[in-house]
Structures are given as structure tokens and as C-alpha cells.
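Quick start: what a row looks like.
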Amino acid sequence: MLTGNFELPVAFDIGAVAAFALTGAFAGVRRGYDIVGIFFLSAATALGGGLIRDGIFLHNGVPLAVRNPEYIVTVVIACIAGLLLSSRMKRFERWIAIGDALGLGTYAIVGVQMTLKAGLGIAPALFIGLLNAVGGGLLRDVLAREEPLVFKPGEFYVLVALAGEVCFVFMATVLRIDLKTAAITAIILTLVLRYLTVRFKWRTRPFAAPP
């Protein structure tokens, strides 16, 4: 049983939403969408994971992304920024990648915690935590009619999030460390592992050669 509660820092939360929204806006620009398409793709990327978590699995009332207007405002600002910066998007890829890595770890941990608090077991918590972390990107790729990034052999994106989740669960449920310490440690681990995979170009391999 979990002891204590980990409240997501506002800066982490808004920063992660903004980073995810920017990736969605850039994807919309690359696909040649108009302002409406770019906004909805940006919103799906930033908020999709939380909507899947709250609406499909946990059923804990109105989804958090809808209850807090700060999220929609952040998506609108990030969408406008994405449009203004679209011609120089390569310059900002590094900072967006850092925000994406922080969001990946943070939302994975939050998804795990909320699932465990709802009374579900560790295995469902790990699964829902992963969906919370990568669900927005999955929706982005599906809506943009692209093969989802999480299905492709490549950088250790999902596996990095899973490593952070396992670290959090082990520290919180086995070692009985308070949730704040366990969560921050797991988020830092995810960020470091994500950086290492990019820095040293670690890649997963396909199970079999495509036909």
C-alpha cells in the first residue's frame, strides 16, 4: 500500500504539456494541416494520455485535462509558438526533447500512482502508467496517419518509461520510501536513461526482418 502522495510540481506539469503540444504542432505543420488541424493534433498529443487514463481506465470523474483550464491555455500558447517557430523547429529540438523526457517520466509515475491509489494491482498500474506517458504521442501518430512511433524499432522510449515505473514501484512498495522521494528519483532515472539512449544512439532491433 502506498504511503503519502506525490503532487506533480506545476512547472513540471505545464512544461510537459507544452513540450508535448509543441511536438504535435510541429507534426501538424509537417503534414500541411490548417490551424484547426494543428490545434487538435497538438491537444491530442499533450492531453491524450491523461484522457485515456481518466476516461477509459480509472473512471474517476471528469478528466483532469478538462477540469483544469490551464492545460487548454497551455496547449493554445504552445500551438501558437509552434506555428511561429515552425520554420526554425530544428533549433528547438534539443529543448523539446528535454521537456519530452521529463514529461515521459513524470506522467508515467503519475499514472502508476493514480492507478495504485484506485486499488488496482502493480501490473495494471505499470500498463496504465505507460499509456499515460505515451498515449498522446500514439494518438498524434494515428490522427496524422503515420505508423505510431512506439511500434517502430528505435530508441528506448517505452522501455525507459517502464524502467522509471519499476523503480518507483520498488521504492514505494518494497523499500517503503515516501512517494515524493521515490517519484523524483524515478523521474531523474527516466531522464538520465533517455539522455543516454539519445547520446549513445542505443536502438532496439526488429524481431524479424519486414517482408
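That is the whole record. The chain has one domain: 10-199. Helices lie at 10-30, 35-58, 64-67, 69-85, 93-117, 122-143, 157-174, 179-199.
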